Every structure is written in C-alpha cells, then in structure tokens.
UniProtKB/TrEMBL annotation:
<dbReference type="InterPro" id="IPR008183">
    <property type="entry name" value="Aldose_1/G6P_1-epimerase"/>
</dbReference>
<dbReference type="GO" id="GO:0005737">
    <property type="term" value="C:cytoplasm"/>
</dbReference>
<dbReference type="GO" id="GO:0047938">
    <property type="term" value="F:glucose-6-phosphate 1-epimerase activity"/>
</dbReference>
<comment type="similarity">
    <text>Belongs to the glucose-6-phosphate 1-epimerase family.</text>
</comment>
<protein>
    <recommendedName>
        <fullName>glucose-6-phosphate 1-epimerase</fullName>
        <ecNumber>5.1.3.15</ecNumber>
    </recommendedName>
</protein>
<dbReference type="GO" id="GO:0030246">
    <property type="term" value="F:carbohydrate binding"/>
</dbReference>
<dbReference type="InterPro" id="IPR025532">
    <property type="entry name" value="G6P_1-epimerase"/>
</dbReference>
<dbReference type="InterPro" id="IPR014718">
    <property type="entry name" value="GH-type_carb-bd"/>
</dbReference>
<keyword id="KW-0413">Isomerase</keyword>
<feature type="binding site">
    <location>
        <position position="70"/>
    </location>
    <ligand>
        <name>substrate</name>
    </ligand>
</feature>
<dbReference type="GO" id="GO:0005975">
    <property type="term" value="P:carbohydrate metabolic process"/>
</dbReference>
<dbReference type="Pfam" id="PF01263">
    <property type="entry name" value="Aldose_epim"/>
</dbReference>
<dbReference type="InterPro" id="IPR011013">
    <property type="entry name" value="Gal_mutarotase_sf_dom"/>
</dbReference>
<feature type="binding site">
    <location>
        <position position="93"/>
    </location>
    <ligand>
        <name>substrate</name>
    </ligand>
</feature>
<feature type="binding site">
    <location>
        <position position="88"/>
    </location>
    <ligand>
        <name>substrate</name>
    </ligand>
</feature>
C-alpha cells in the first residue's frame, strides 16, 4: 500500500517470510526502511537511507516460533527477565500478533508524515491460565521522514480487576566494537545489577564503557540516552516517554558461548539498551490504559 504522508510517498507492505509468518515492511519514501514481524511484534530490521542496518541480528538467530529472534527489538511483557513467575521476559515476544486495521486514534504526532503499522496482542484462553489478566496491547511501529523509528505502545486493562506489569523494548543496536562504544546519560544513576542478585549500586559518574559482561537496570533515567560509536561514526539516541528505566546488556564472551542462538564473537557487534519500566511495575485499574513511547534515531558523527 502506498500512502501519501506529509507530501511524500511512504509505503507499507505485508510480505510472507520464509518461516510462513507475515512481516510488515515500512518505507519512509526517502530510502529508510524497517521490517516488523508479527511473531512477537518484533522489529527485525531498521535501515538508513543508505541501506546501513542499525539493529543487530545474530547469524545464529532462530526464526521459528515460539522462540524470539536473537536481535532486533523483542518486547518483554508482562515480565522482565526472571523478575516474576512467568517465563523469562514474559510471553509477548513469543506470540503471533495481528495487524490492527482499526486502532483507536492516536495524536497526529504519531501518524503525520510517517509510515506505520498497528499491531495487537490479546491473551488466549491458555495465556490467561498463566497470567489471569485480560489486556489489549496495541503497538504502533512507525518510521518518520528522517528515518526515526518509534514504538508507541498502549496497554489497556479490559479485565474486572487491577493488574501490574513490567515492560522493556529490548533493543539490540548494531555497533562496530563493544570496546569502543560508550553510553552517556546514565551517569550518577542508581542501577540494579542482574549479575549480583539485583543489588542496587550507584554509577560512578563516568560515561559507561565496556570491558566485561554488563547486565543492569538503571532506574529513573533521563528521557534521552545516547550510545556513541566512533568507529562507525554514528551516535544512537534513545528518547523515551513513560519508560523510566534503561536496561544495558552485553553478554561478553563466556555467556555468548552459552547462548545457542548467538555466535561466540558476536558480543563485540551488539549492545542492548532498552527503554523499560521494571523497577516500579505499572498498575492499571479496570478500563485504564498506559501509553509508552520509544523513539530511536541515529546522527552521524565525525
Ligand atoms: O536470552 P534472553 O532471554 O533473550 O535474555 C537476554 C538477556 O536480556 C537482558 O535484558 C537481561 O537483562 C539478561 O539477564 C538476559 O540474559
């Protein structure tokens, strides 16, 4: 489908992937593109107008549901990691989402000039046995004229009683070399260290660099965090609303070897920086809806 948006032609196309699952290809009319799988509502690819891939996908990734693909942006919901009774990172990333042709309106900011698709996840009878809360999770993935990728999520309580959830957009950025990148925006914040039983520490105030495994949840972070990658001459910006926490993860060499769907040396080429709400789970009363936005974009550097 070709759509005119903000004076230029954007394109939204549904294609069947080799695993039989539909993927949605978004093109912003200026050369940038993104690909979203209905499996997990997972963004698999995000490319600049020059065709550079900005997200990492492992060469060993498994494209067979229910396993989430190792790369792109899996969605962790309604649980993050092992912080609860559900399977690791919750079930949303393992489910087949549907395209929502008639979603409730979003502000013009979420549509104007953008190529976008609306996806929807609702629990099945079986899901309700494990997590007995009826919800509607609406996700809009959009690409704007400048190639910014935005994930707008709306979660509604359609149950008769309140429920709480955690959420993370587990973004695998593609980087030149983990030893060369740094993150700015997390200095002096508190973080929970997943490698030390979620103990709370305070960042020492320097930009974050990497020389071993890192698995942290930074709490109450600023709305914008940046990942500098000098060798690739680019900086990623992560701008978020409603997502107070930031997860930073790199498995380093030992854990990389233990992951079946990850190459032994691939930890050098990826860094996960997630917009998330984990430390204080979000509670919704019956009929209430929560909205979160994650916008990611890249600026060339010299
Ligand atoms: O292998 P998974 O389930 O995709 O998780 C990968 C990693 O995801 C990170 O976000 C977690 O903090 C890590 O603890 C975890 O190892």
């Amino acid at each position: 489908m070709d759509v005119s948006a903000g004076g230029h032609r954007v394109a939204v196309e549904v294609v069947k992937a080799s695993n039989g699952i539909d993927q949605v290809v978004l093109q912003n009319g200026r050369g940038a593109s993104a690909r979203v799988s209905l499996h997990g509502g997972q963004v698999l690819s995000w490319k600049t107008r020059r065709g550079e891939e900005l997200l990492f996908t492992s060469s060993k990734a498994i494209f067979k549901p229910p396993v989430a693909v190792r790369g792109g942006i899996p969605i962790c919901f309604p649980q993050f990691g092992s912080h609860g009774t559900l399977e690791q990172h919750g079930f949303a990333r393992n489910k087949i989402w549907i395209i929502d042709d008639n979603p409730p309106l979003l502000p013009p900011y979420d549509s104007n000039g953008k190529a976008y698709v609306d996806l929807l996840l609702k629990p099945t009878e079986n899901d309700l046995k494990f997590w007995p809360h009826n919800f509607e999770f609406r996700l809009r993935v959009s690409l704007n004229e400048d190639g910014h990728l935005t994930l707008t999520s709306r979660i509604r309580n359609v149950d008769g009683k309140p429920f709480s959830f955690s959420i993370a957009f587990h973004t695998y950025f593609s980087i030149s070399d983990i030893s060369e990148v740094r993150i700015e925006g997390l200095e002096t914040l508190h973080y929970l260290d997943n490698l030390l039983q979620k103990e709370c520490f305070t960042d020492q105030g320097n930009t974050l660099t990497f020389e071993s495994e890192v698995d942290r949840i930074y709490v109450n972070s600023p709305d914008v965090v940046a990942v500098f990658d000098h060798e690739n001459k680019r900086t990623f910006f992560i701008k978020k609303q409603g997502l107070p926490d930031v997860v930073v993860w790199n498995p380093w060499d030992k854990k990389a070897k233990a992951l079946v769907d990850f190459g032994d040396d691939e930890y050098k080429q990826m860094l996960c920086v997630d917009g998330a709400a984990i430390e204080k789970p979000i509670t919704l009363r019956p009929g209430e809806e929560w909205t979160g936005r994650l916008e990611i974009f890249v600026i060339p550097s010299t």
